[in-house]
Specification:
five-stranded antiparallel β-sheet, nine-stranded antiparallel β-sheet, 5 helices, Beta-galactosidase, Chain A, domain 5
Length: about 400
Amino acid sequence: MKKSLKIALAMYCCLPLCSFAQKAEKSITIEVSNEWNKAKENEPVVLNIKDLKAPFTVKSAVVWEGNTEIPSQLDDLNGDRKADELAFVTNIPAKANKVFKIILSSEKSKKTYPSKVYADMLVSDKKGKHVPISSVSVPGGILYNQLHHHGPAFESELVAYRIYFDKKQTVDLYGKFHKGFELKESQFYPTDEQLAKGFGDDVLRVNASCGLGTFKGWDGKKALHIDPVSNRTESILAYGPVRTVVDVIANDWQYQGAELNMTTRYILYAGHRDAEVKILFDEPLKKEIFCTGVQDIKGSTSFSDHKGLIACWGTDWPVNDTIKYKKETVGLATCVPQKYVKSEAKDADNYLYTIGAEGKKSIDYNIVFTSMKETFGYKTPEAWFAYVQEWKKELEHPCKITMK
């Protein structure tokens, strides 16, 4: 009897673990409705995993529109190694809706989709090579010169952005002649050979300005950098295929009598030239006043609707080398929901709105730009200002998501 029991136990212990772990799935149907009177292209659809109430840890997902599988991605946004959001994009006609079936699974998937976005952050080693990293944290918060393009960079087929790793935390821009992906090859600094092939390049010299929609402090007269801080971290949380997500964390920012822990999150979706900006705090704000807007490019023309939309169009050298490089013309715009707006302001470097969110832990807004070099973009300030007004209307009419 004892011998038989030992043999049975031995056989039990030798069985592969996978025989005891069963795959779990949950099917969900959602309806995405476009109630606006214009069609939506590459409309982001984002679902909170907790809201889907799967009785297991979600490790993969598949999205179906009818019999067509839609590229999607799961993102861990808080670093606990569990998915927080499921994201995909879709085209929806005006006054129409679409139904999607979503299969959540407890098993990881090796499935891949062609990526419509790209992101990287590169640290330079002693041999001059550029080593990819996904996150870096520095006491005092300056790593500008050690990172190849000064911070994380990310792109869609239309545009590319980068975020400075220093107290300015500035949003800087890379314009393209043609739609496509360039950062992996050009690393934000195209060679002469790449330029001759039609690669884009840096199109804005930001100096001490807010560049495009950089979140800043405000002293009543001018924009302030995010300084001093005890620690600054910049991370790429998502690389695609549907969206890139980049975080900039400033800990213990000494500001207006408060000590703020702040995350600035940038999200760029496939097919978009605009990016979402989410300012996240670990505690509700009090009466602190901040600002954001667009750089006052030398000799620029500006537009404001006085309700949160601010834009400009201007021409300047993108770098200090005025021999090798030519002037670039760009259009910039930032759109802040009116509920955050306190006043409209102007300092020596920027067109601004002062903003606040007393009692809240977040502030959301959007940024967008065009470069004159684009074969697919805007060529006059009038065309640009008309576009950004329509862009604001689109932002104000997001699609509605309903669980079926």
